[in-house]
Amino acid sequence: xxxxxxxxxxxxxxxxxKNAKVRGAARGKGDARQGRVTEDNWEQLLSQHGRxxxxxxxxxxxxxxxxxxxxTGEPDGIVISVSSGRCRVVFxxxxxxxMVPPEMAVRQKSLLAVGDRVLLDHEDDVWRLRGxxxxxxxxxxxxxxxxxxxxxIAANLDVVIHVVSVKAxxxxxxxxxxxxxxxxxGGAQPVLCVNKIDxxxxxxxxxxxxxxxxxxxxxxPVIATSTQxxxxxxxxxxxxxxxxxxxxxHSGVGKxxxxxxxxxxxxxxxxxxxxxxxxxHTTTASSLYDFGDGTYLIDxxxxxxxxxxxxxxxxxxxxxxELVEANELCRFxxxxxVHEPDCEVKDRVESGVIDRARYETYVRLxxxxxx
Length: 371
Ligand code: GDP
Ligand code: ZN
Hints:
The protein has helices at 5-28, 42-49, 55-61, 102-105, 108-111, 176-186, 202-210, 213-217, 233-240, 255-262, 313-318, 321-327, 344-350, 356-368; strands at 77-83, 86-91, 94-99, 117-123, 126-132, 138-143, 146-155, 159-165, 189-195, 222-224, 244-248, 287-290, 296-299. By secondary structure, the protein is an alpha/beta fold. The protein folds into four domains: 5-57, no CATH class; 63-132, CATH 2.40.50.140; 149-299, Rossmann fold (3-Layer(aba) Sandwich); 313-368, Probable gtpase engc, domain 3 (Ribonucleotide Reductase Protein R1, domain 1). The strands form three sheets. It has a six-stranded mixed β-sheet, sandwiched between helices. β4 (117-123) and β5 form a beta hairpin. The longest helix has 24 residues, at 5-28. It is globular and about 70 Å long. The relative contact order is 0.11. Bound molecules: guanosine-5'-diphosphate and zinc ion. The site of zinc ion has 7 residues, from α13.
C-alpha cells in the first residue's frame, strides 16, 4: 500500500502511542524482554498470549508512555503481512521486507502475526527480525496438525468483527458461538456484523435479525451492513475509529467488500471476477491496512470454524453468561447442566428463558472438550 508522507508520519505517531501501551502492559507483567521469542521461551510465550486479558492487564494498558521501561528504548515496526520465512514491516515510515530467523521460521505460524510489534536488525542491506514485543491481544486457533499449538491469525487487536451474511451464505447463528468464544479468549472486543442485509425483504429481515436477539441480550454488539446500499457502514466506521480491528468469518460473507466500502481507495480484490480478469480471488493470509486517523484494519483469510484452543469444560461455562446466572438455582453447585437432575439451566431452556440453540452449542462443546 502506498502511503503519503503525511500518512506515514501519522502512522508512526500512532504506532508510538500504541507501543507505549503495549510496553505498559509488559511492565505490568514484569520484564518486557520476556516478549523476545527464543527457542527456549516460545512455549511459555504461547501460553501467555493465549490468555484472556484480565482486569490487571487492562489497568497496565492505561499506563503512560514508557519508552525506557522496556530496557531497550529501541524503535520497532509493525508487521503488515507474513509469508514463508519473511514478513513485511512498516518501520520508521518505510515499508520493508524482513527475514525471519530460522529458529522462528520453523514455527512461524505460531510465533509471528500481522499486527505484531517487532524489533529489527539491519546489516549488509538485509533486514532481520530480532524479536517480538509482548502482545495485548491475539486472535488464534488451534493448529490443525497439533491441537495443542495455536496458530496466530493476528495480534494486538482492539476489536474483532465477526462478519456473517444472510442468504449467500445464509445466516447460521450456531456458528457464532465458537467465534465469539475465540475472540474473547484472545482479549479483543467482539462485534457481530450481519452483512448483505440488502438481500432481505423487510419481513425476512425482521425474522433473520430476531435470531440474533439472544446475542444482543448477552451484550454482543450486532450491526447490520450492506456494501450495496451503504447501510451500517457509518456505524462500522465509528466502531473501528482510532482502533486496530480485524474482520473474520467465512469466505464469501463480504469482508473484503466491507473494507473496500469503508475506504474507496483501498481496492482490495473481492471474490468476484475482478477487473483484470485473472479469476476469483480469495484472501489467503491476513494483511493490515492503514485507514488513517489511527485506524488499522486487518483482512483475514476465510475461517470455517474456530476450534477452541486450550479450553476445558470448566472454563467453557464462563463463556455462557446465561448459564452462570442460572447456576445458583441448580441443585448441585458444580452442576455441569448436562446430565444432572434439578438443573435450573435445563428448566430455563424448556421455558424458553435460555436460548435453546445456545444451550445445545454448549452441550456439543462440552462433549468435545476434555475434562
Ligand atoms: P470475503 O471472502 O468475505 O472477503 O467476501 P467478498 O468481499 O469477496 O464478497 C463475496 C461476494 O459477496 C462478492 O460477490 C461481493 O460482491 C458480495 N457482497 C459483498 N458484500 C455484499 C453486500 O452487502 N450485499 C450483497 N448483495 N452482496 C455483497
Ligand atoms: Zn444445572
